[in-house]
Amino acid sequence: MSRSVPSSSLLRSFPRAVRGQLLAEGVLPLNAPILVAFSGGADSTALALSLHRLGLPFMLAHLNHGLRPEAAAESAPEGPVRTFAAQLGVACHIEHEDVAAMAASRGLGLEEAGRLARYAFLERTRAAQGCAWIALGHQADDLIEDMLLRLVRGTGWPALAGMRACDPSRHLVRPLLQIPRADIEAFLNAAGQSWLHDASNDTNAFRRNRLRHGVLPTLLDENPSFHQAALALWAQAREDERFWEAFLAPTLACVCQTQAGLALPEAALRPLPRAARLRLYAELLRRMARRFGSGQARASTLFNLDRALLRQERPKRFQFPGGVVACLADGRLELTSPPAPAGTQNASEP
Amino acid sequence: MSRSVPSSSLLRSFPRAVRGQLLAEGVLPLNAPILVAFSGGADSTALALSLHRLGLPFMLAHLNHGLRPEAAAESAPEGPVRTFAAQLGVACHIEHEDVAAMAASRGLGLEEAGRLARYAFLERTRAAQGCAWIALGHQADDLIEDMLLRLVRGTGWPALAGMRACDPSRHLVRPLLQIPRADIEAFLNAAGQSWLHDASNDTNAFRRNRLRHGVLPTLLDENPSFHQAALALWAQAREDERFWEAFLAPTLACVCQTQAGLALPEAALRPLPRAARLRLYAELLRRMARRFGSGQARASTLFNLDRALLRQERPKRFQFPGGVVACLADGRLELTSPPAPAGTQNASEP
Fold this sequence. Notes:
Number of strands of chain A: 11
Oligomer: homodimer
Structural class of chain A: alpha/beta
Distance between the termini of chain A: 25 Å
Strand order of the largest sheet of chain A: 3-2-1-4-6-5
Number of helices of chain A: 14
């Protein structure tokens, strides 16, 4: 989407791009309303407005994290969140969660606690309202920040290239993921639609913001088409994911669920090329993360695990984020997790 | 290699790490001396000193680019370059090239012209002196900068993860690639060995330096183990390269050389998974780059090429860096290049 598009044409082309993305991801045709994760910021406002203009059924879900002084007023009965919902003629489900207290009680950072609370609220609301999908406002700038975050953390390929546009297992879809922030604001300006400004995006208290303000501008200075470059990389990662999914399907069919995790015979691992084994470990850990809410694995630990497999060192244990343990023993690889506290599921993606 | 290692132990462990790398890459045992690309900076000084301490046969090759006022004195008969060679008791081959004039006459940037002149000089000297390998001083910080440069440019995976440790087809080996700059300086300090400071590394006139000074410190602030994370990513890319090389070998066997380039029947392409086809295009372009000195392809152009293949649009042409053209017509994909000016070969890597 070009920034030189006149506003009248943007009012049509922007929702059309959103519909194109929903079609490509298999979200359309709908058999139930979409639940829009609505913060009131530019991204989710543009997403809701697009669905409204496309005539698609949807409702809003808004979580007050209790972190900003102005948040209570935003979600109050006469506040901007409910006013926007009324303007579009859609339902709006609002809840309040004391994220700071949750972070303190569970020993989490504020960002992480907010993310967990938000996804739990969204899934709860989706199920209760009978919605088919949760639509998230993540856009191309978020995607690039996500890539940088993953690069910093040492995430391997293809996960390195950032969040997915669609995750049917979690009912998540991100229809704006290929649209830069500037285009979203241009659409809202063309529509004469205001949005809420979240001041916490401006501070450098969070790593995401530090990368947004400290790194991204330099990359964009060096390559004004950096959005396009990053999106091509992201698209390549999606192709690779498809490839490895098909390539590993016969091996993954040998995985058995145990009470505390997953297990796989070593004999199924050994014939694979090393690149495939490294992927397989990552996929097993992703499955553990989905079941137990553990975090992303570092590539270096996967290499160490593979080295131990070849070296016949038994028994051998490896620790992964979220308390997951991989153990090589008795002719099989077993991944186990400590019992997860309630509400920590689905913690593997932003 | 840890930074807390005492200096006496570093004097042994550092050369040992260099030897380990040379063994891993199949460079040892040697049947001819190594040619060290010697700038006089910390990296190539540490490399030469390590080979000296390992008792391996080597000689130095030094190119005066004519860009810095102090360069002539550095390579003069009593200057530090020849003095260092004499101290180690090895031959030193010195040439002068007017890189600024070369850049102007060929319409290149100074960095690019310097790189072309340097690699041409090294290969010429290697062949003339009967050396088996050219050893380059690139280290882990260079590798990370290379990753960022490739990220900015939109390079696809696995090339995204940076330069190779070894390229037998070009007789290149980079034994320091997994060692951070700080460890190299610690080794030199422990050895009481001084090195030349290249002031052009401090300016922000070059993109590499801007990323080094403007982006890398932030990434290291966010993750003090970022070197390790980046090296794991790089190792994963090398595994993927091996995997794709084996996976694509049967298809690459169908490639035929034409006078102006390469050609491949469409029938050999169509049965491949899309991820494999995208790799195959990248490999064909890499072969063209090696033959004709063209540059790295953008991932987005490869996607467009693949879309055209599936859509049966014929004839269809795509432009790649360095004037390479990919053409879909007559049931085959053909890559052609305009005649290359002399001395532009091997321009695809730093």
